[in-house]
Amino acid sequence: MLLPVGNHGGDGDCGAVQLAAEIEELSLGSTGGLGDRLSALPDDILHSILLRLPSTPAAARTCVLSRRWRGIWAQLPEIRFPFPS
């Protein structure tokens, strides 16, 4: 991620403190550090994301991301297994 370079609303240490606060806010996200932004999405959007993966086993591997993702892949409306050509 690229951060803008320049004055961040203050001189000297005040600017550095504000920049550190901005970086911390970006790293914690809008959930305040209690979870991740991706897991906060509705199930329908998570299903859409998983359906873009090449196969059902690939979608199943996402269960290690968080507790919230453990059963999401099993709710997919279609099952796809790659067949060797």
Keywords:
elongated; mainly alpha; 85 residues
Radius of gyration over all CA atoms, rounded: 20 Å
Residue stretches low in confidence (pLDDT < 50, at least 5 long) are 5-10
Average of per-residue pLDDT values:
74
Q: How many separate helices?
A: 3
| SSE pattern | HHH
Given helix and strand content, the structural type is mainly alpha
Helix content: 25-40%
Instruction: Give the total of beta strands.
Output: 0
Please indicate the percent range of residues in DSSP E strands (runs of 2 or more).
under 5%
Biggest sheet layout: none
Shape: elongated
Distance between the termini: 40 Å
Give your account of this protein's structure.
The chain is mainly α and 85 residues long. It has a domain at 46-76. It is built from three helices and no strands. The longest helix is centred in the N-terminal third of the chain and has 16 residues, at 13-28. 2% of the residues are buried. Residues 5-10 have low confidence and may be disordered.
Task: Please summarize what this structure is.
The chain is mainly α and 85 residues long.
Protein topology:
Layout: H1 13-28, H2 43-51, H3 56-60
